[in-house]
Amino acid sequence: MAYQMQFAPVLDRAPELIQGTINTIVLSGQSIAIGLAIGLTVAIVRIDGPRWAAGCGAAYVEAFRNTPLLVQLFLLFFGLPYMGVRLSADTAAVLAMSLNLGAYSTEIFRAGLLAIPRTQIEAGLALGLSRLQVVRYIIVIPALRVIYPALTGQLTLTLLGSSIASSISATELTLAASKIESQTFRSLETFLVVAAIYITITFTFRLIYWLIGLWLFRRRRPKLASMGVPAIATAREVDA
Question: How do residues 147-159 score in pLDDT, each as one tens digit?
Fold first, then answer.
């Protein structure tokens, strides 16, 4: 007897799926913001920080890159209460995903920063650029151009990895789908709809990343003359 798919019972629970989608986006957005801040900070410390701080940063990176996200999530949610620290499921999920992304983005940021030649920075200073302008036009933008594909790919993995948070009952899309599936007994239909939602979210985020990259890397390069560089250097542009 052929299986007959019925999407009506699943679509009738659309408000729950919509709320789960919103929760997933919020959860992922918070984790991405915090994780990128952690990654950039640790990357700078590993490059220019004192030896002990660089060692701590390296230990953090290795610890989180060599253990599964699910284990990290369980340690924070189930392990911290033994130390007197209790986190809600959503807070534990954001913290685990942020630390996980921070570890991976540290190495991505570090690769980009190390790709900028020291002589290029010295040349910018010699042309009369301020240190802030050097950081903006000679370090940050070129480094981001180098690492942008890898970085956005890691951000996409963080978004999709938010589904693991359902294992501790964090309120996100996969948990909402599990509840709907258990009540409608329409497993195939439920997770086909959820897969379509994840694909839509992922492509939306990728479009946003593409637009950000377009704004960062394809805008007109600033003329040195507009930044107060002597006339002898105005024929050249900052290689951003």
Answer: 999 999 999 999 9
Q: Please tell me the distance from the alpha carbon of residue 102 to that of residue 45, in angstroms, as a whole number.
A: 13
> C-alpha distances in angstroms, 81 versus 78, 88, 146?
6, 11, 41
Go through the chain and tell me how many residues it has: 240
Supply the CATH classification number for the domain 13-233. Answer: 1.10.3720.10
Q: CA 65 to CA 215: how far, in whole Å?
A: 31
Q: Cα separations (Å) of 208 from 152, 161, 202, 203?
A: 10, 19, 10, 9
Phi/psi at 56 (nearest 5 deg)?
Answer: -65, -40
Provide the 8-state DSSP code for 235: T
Q: What pLDDT digit, counting tens, does each position of 1-38 carry?
A: 578 888 999 999 999 999 999 999 999 999 999 999 99
Which residue stretches of the chain are H helix?
Answer: 8-11, 14-48, 51-65, 69-74, 89-114, 118-126, 131-133, 141-161, 173-184, 187-217
Cβ contact 180:20 at 8 Å: no
**What are the domain boundaries of the chain?**
13-233
DSSP 57-72: HHHHHHHHHTS-HHHH
Q: Which of 132, 127, 131 is nearest to 238 (CA)?
A: 127
**What is the pTM for the complete model shown?**
0.85
Per-residue tokens: 73: 């999530």
